Amino acid sequence: MVGIVIVSHSKLLAQGVCELAAQMVQGKVPLAQAAGIEDGDNPLGTDAIQVQQAIESVYTDAGVLVLMDLGSALLSAEMALEFLSEEQRRNVYLCEAPLVEGAIAATVAAATGADIHQVMAEAQGALRVKAMQLGVDDNHPQHGENRNLSIGEEFTEKEIHVKVSNRLGLHARPAAQLVALAASFQSQIKVRNITRKTEYVRADSINQVAMLGVRHGHELGICAQGVDADEALAALGELAASNFGEDASTLWSASELAADGEERGVDTQEVQKSALQGIPASTGVAIAPIARFASAASVRMTPMFFHNPPVLSPQNYHTDNPSGEWQRLQQAIETARQEIQVLLSQASTQIGDSEAAIFDAHLLFLADPLVLDAVKEQIFTLRFHAAIAWQGVVEELANQYRVHEDSYLQTRVADVIDVGERVLRILLGTAPKNLHLTQPSIVVATDLTPSDTAQLDLNLVLGICTTAGSAMSHTAIIARSLGIPAVVGIPSSILQQPEGTLLALDGETGNVWIEPDPEVVTSLEAKRQAWQAAQQRARRRAYDQAVTIDGVRIHVYGNIGGVADAEVAVSNGAEGVGLLRSEFIYLDRKKPPSEDEQLSIYQAILQILGERPLTIRTLDVGGDKPLPYLDLPQENNPFLGWRGIRFCLDKQELFKTQLRAILRASRSGKIRVMFPMIATLGELRAAKATFCGIQDEFRHAGIEFDENIEVGIMIEVPSAVIIADQLAKEVDFFSIGTNDLSQYVMACDRTNPQVANLADALHPAVLRMVAQTIIAGRKAGIRVGLCGELGSDPVAAPILLGLGLQEISLTPKAIPAFKQTITRLNLTEAEIIASEALQQESAAQVRALVSTFNY
To answer: What is the distance between the alpha carbons of residues 105 and 110, in angstroms, rounded to a whole number?
Structure first.
């Protein structure tokens, strides 16, 4: 925690400031004073040695902020720095902020865990609230401005101009990349939309960047000032050149950019007089009873409360403990962050990393400094309860999106509401609003948030109908990714229809019928049958084997997170499950699932798969996959820490419970067990020993299981690649996890936007690791597969085929396209592509190479 030192000519003044600041945070922040001199006749003055001692008494690696009054106080403080070690001097900052207000603001910031630069920025902006109260001009820097500029430092402001090539401009995913990267630098970074002639806004605020309304072809000005301005601008320029992390192959088609029926080519002659007209958002036909859903978005935040929270009377809006309320908010935000991280992981499995990145923007909203500043000001200045302050700030921000002149930005209000409601729910201790369906239905609501949509049961939700929304909204994007027919923008009269009323919708034309006439049903049924026939034809092609022109086959499996995903995988042509991310079974719970609970899930998946194999990866938590009830420790480098098999070997009872469930389920179908994050032979042998021990227990107890169950490992750590020949002697198969392997090979955290672009599985260094693993497996006579996102990249198909990969496991929706690509290749050409790819110098060169081949 940052330490605070008060330097003053008056000892009494310093004592008073320290006492006031300490009371504000209940003594949580280390405070020291260096004030007055030992002279009874003239006690006013400052002593450099005294300042040095005060600094050392509160010194930590987090830093020390020194606030001073006039005259010699500054000279004494500067002299005191000379008595410190060089290492200490680097962590001590002299601040020009006003003594009383600055000390209070800095102490409060330090109590929340802010870093030294944030603490100093709070001190520098301490007069802002008073200036606003008195109605005078406020020229003081706000939170985050001039950060890292200490006394005597001056940096030239530098600017670059970049053009935005993304088809949808800076929508949530690319905007999130920009904001996260900007926030990772020390310099003050601002951005403006040159095309729209906007003013500069803070680049570390997801909401301010979104409000710029940056569309395809717009020019941005990015300005940086500070110690690492050059590095920041270079990195941001590279990000813009890479389409802000969006691969051209993942950009949406023109039909998906339509905002209304005319742009989608609606034939108005086909619109029945009895139909309500809306905006087509996701193709398909649905006929089913209404299921009404009052989601967070449905309330539109006027007010945002909708979970029947305790009614707070005006006199109860205020608190006598603002520090406690601020801490409560921080805890609620952290809980929300964990929930969104889980949702992000689940969505990645269902709809792929590209679409799931919508929730990256939700995570950045939780860290938006302008939102947090506004809430903090209401808590500490107006002494509002955290829930009241949070609600007010988020509601105001939502209204800014609603009235924005850019119709695309108006659709982002659902994201604001989504995140805002989540934190509010946690603060109030209310349960989340879930949709519990008992029969196949069409969900009717004012609107759905992205979180609502991502968690719909695909077996029971046949369609979506909302009165608000847009074909460009994140909800519509997710619905399309999930294959749920959807119409948005329907007249609000539909909300008056009782639960169970028969509804029909056409996601292609945007028409909705309430209690449709028999002729309408007949017409729609015919259209649905035609649509289903087309889907079945596509599925039949998807069910075809992935065989090259010259007869080489690759087995194609699906990556899943649960029972519903298994059905989606099979419907997309999966020949089995190559990766069950079993950690999803442990999510959204207050305690780990029991052996019987796990058994029932595995058996349900096996029933869907029939004779197809199910590969279960044992519990893989840690890194970016926290489980709160397991009490995982905070780690400086969680991806390099206590995760995967390391965690399970230490938590034997948890591990054994899962292995027992897997063995019991093996009687019901073809199961393979796979251990994650294996780095050494010792880890593999220890995991196998635990597994074999349970097998022995079952034999002695007469419990049946598959005696021939296969055991494999994930290859996702460089050490596993290096000793793959030794590991291959111990297992039946390898599965290469390119997501983790890429970040470990390239020494970059794939969740850190400043370096995430290095974690590219098409980099020749990673491809060589893949090739080495395949060769080791082939020599040992075991199967080698791959289950990372690399397989979903069309560019990778010929390379993986040419390297000799035998099986692959993909996000279900990527399976048909991969199979189709394989059928257009021949092994000889693929081997040439793979060989040349290994000789390239970068991932970009690999992509350029593959693009020269016509397949």
So the answer is: 9
Decide: helix, strand or coil at residue 557: strand
Determine phi and psi for 579, rounding to 5 degrees. Answer: -155, 105
- DSSP category for residue 318: B
H-helix or E-strand containing 555?
strand 553-560
Q: What is the DSSP letter of 677?
A: S
Phi and psi for 412 in degrees, rounded to 5? -75, -5
CA distance 406 to 198: 13
Tokens of 601: 């899930």
The phi, psi pair for 442, rounded to 5°, reads -105, 125
pLDDT of residue 141: 39
Which pLDDT does position 28 carry in this prediction?
81
Question: Tens digit of pLDDT for each residue in 823-834?
Answer: 999 999 999 999
What is the residue whose two structure tokens read 């269902």? 350
At residue 131's C-alpha, the angle toward residues 125 and 134, to 5°, is 165
- Give first-to-last CA distance, the chain, whole Å: 58
Entry pTM: 0.55
- Cβ-contact 427, 332 below 8 angstroms: yes
List active site positions.
Answer: 474, 787
Angle at 587 between CA 583 and CA 591, to 5 degrees: 105
Return the bridge partners of 209, or none: none
DSSP line for 580-622? EEGGGGGSS-SSPPPHHHHHHHHHHHHHHHTTS-EEEE----B
Rounded Cα–Cα distance for residues 559 and 808 (Å): 10
Give the per-residue pLDDT at 263. 35
Cβ contacts of 814 within 8 Å, gap of 6 or more: 352, 791, 792
Show Cβ contacts of residue 494 under 8 Å, excluding neighbours closer than 6 positions.
276, 444, 465, 467, 512, 514
CA distance 794 to 814: 9
The pair of three-digit structure tokens given for residue 780, joined into one six-digit string: 């040992």
The token pair at 247 is 């691969």
Comparing 139 with 323, the larger pLDDT belongs to: 323
